[in-house]
Design a protein that fits this description.
By secondary structure, this protein is of the alpha+beta class. The chain has helices at residues 3-7, 13-43, 48-56, 75-88, 90-109, 114-126, 238-279, 288-315, 319-322, 325-353, 355-358, 367-373, 382-393, and strands at 130-133, 151-153, 156-167, 174-180, 190-196, 200-206, 218-229, 233-234. Strands 1-4-5-8 form a four-stranded mixed β-sheet, covered by helices on one side.
């Protein structure tokens, strides 16, 4: 996606070299992920080989600050890696994206907590894989409300959560879970709790058997933790964490995964049309026009993601800017726009390659990519996001300017 060039056009030589090194590491992971992507999809199994490669390349801790043993990677650098992985294996890319979405919350909001700083050191040194538990039985997909609560007893707490979905929960080394601050708190008064895998029990309550994104293994679980130090609870309100880090990371990194899927589909369509052109020199293949349309849509999709990343990088470190209504609307628009574009682009590419793309096992097969990308408008539901945007627009004042928010 080349966001390094487009978001930061004049990187210092050392930073540019580091970005290139990250890309090279991600491409090695992508090669491994691609070898197993079809098997992961067919069996609906965790992309274990790809995640092992991510750990071997030490890409799970790159967002951790250098002072804590990480590499201080930016959101734009991580987005580039999501796009690279998205071309190879949607499930592996989504696992990587979801890991860094949760890590963004720790990096942004955990630096004033000694316990969480030590945790980040462990993530960097041990390459711990982070999962998220924000959805809950009884509240649907509303991550801003919780029924379960942190139940404190002195300096320790217990937590029981009926999690309708925990992506790769059984494979994660660490789960960040939302819960009410205490038993009497309102459902919207939430905190984020860090739970190491050896501190909890997970009882599977549902199995992830889906059309696409099968390898994310997003099963449902009854999560239980007991006798854990209260220090593991981030005291900052989850509403602030969501607004200032999680919302941006989710929409921008998911969008980068979807861009990777869409760009792979367009490349397959391009290769198909080029092959047809070689068979009949001097004639423009029938699919060339559809290819041009798909390439145009891909460029628009890329521009949307890159512009969102640029806005985030400019606002990073400024809580007021990150919590501004206009910023939230922009991020919502990135998600709804890019998720719809991704589906459209893959469908366009499939129409170009025709039956060769519809069949499995051909050089132009796009069935897996189409099934995977169909999840994009559903994570989180575009209708839910558009409803939220509509409410925000009721109180926003428009500037009418091209180059400002």
């Amino acid at each position: 996606m080349n966001v390094h060039v487009e978001v930061a056009a004049a990187l210092p030589a050392a930073a540019a070299a580091a970005a290139g090194a990250l890309d090279a590491r991600a491409k090695r992971v992508a090669e491994e992920a691609a070898r197993h992507a079809d098997a992961v999809d067919r069996a609906g199994r965790f992309p274990a080989e790809a995640v092992a490669a991510l750990k071997a390349e030490r890409l799970l801790g790159i967002q951790v600050p250098r002072s804590l043993g990480g590499e201080g990677a930016s959101m734009s650098e991580i987005a580039e890696l999501c796009a690279i992985l998205g071309r190879a294996c949607s499930a592996a890319a989504m696992v990587f994206a979801m890991h860094h979405i949760k890590l963004a919350s720790l990096v942004t909001h955990g630096l004033d907590s000694a316990w969480h700083c030590t945790l980040m050191e462990r993530i960097a040194s041990e390459q711990l894989l982070i999962a998220s538990s924000t959805t809950e039985a009884g509240i649907g997909g509303d991550l801003r409300n919780s029924l379960c609560a942190v139940e404190a007893e002195g300096d320790t707490f217990r937590l029981t959560k009926e999690a309708s979905v925990i992506s790769y929960g059984a494979q994660a080394d660490l789960i960040l879970a939302t819960a009410r601050r205490h038993k009497e708190a309102a459902t919207s008064d939430q905190v984020l709790v860090a739970l190491l895998s050896d501190q909890i029990t997970l009882e599977r309550t549902s199995v992830w058997d889906t059309l696409g994104m099968r390898g994310t293994c997003s099963d449902g679980f009854l999560l239980k933790a007991e006798g854990l130090p209260l220090a593991q609870v981030l005291q900052k309100p989850f509403a602030e964490i969501a607004a200032q880090s999680m919302l941006a990371a989710s929409h921008l990194l998911w969008g980068s995964v979807w861009f990777g899927i869409a760009s792979y589909a367009v490349d397959r369509a391009r290769a198909f049309v080029q092959g047809e052109a070689r068979k009949k020199p001097g004639q423009v293949p029938p699919g060339a026009l559809r290819l041009a349309e798909a390439a145009n849509a891909l460029q628009a999709m890329k521009s949307t993601v890159v512009a969102g990343l640029a806005r985030y990088e400019a606002a990073k470190g400024d809580p007021d800017a990150l919590s501004a209504i206009g910023f939230s609307i922009m991020l919502n628009n990135v998600k709804t726009t890019v998720s719809a574009q991704a589906v459209d682009i893959v469908q366009r590419a499939l129409s170009v390659v025709g039956i060769a793309g519809y069949k499995n096992g051909t050089p132009f097969s796009l069935g897996r990519q189409l099934r995977d990308v169909l999840s994009a408008p559903l994570m989180i539901s575009n209708d839910r996001i558009l409803s939220n945007t509509a409410n925000l627009l009721l109180v926003q004042k428009g500037s009418g300017k091209l180059l400002s928010a």
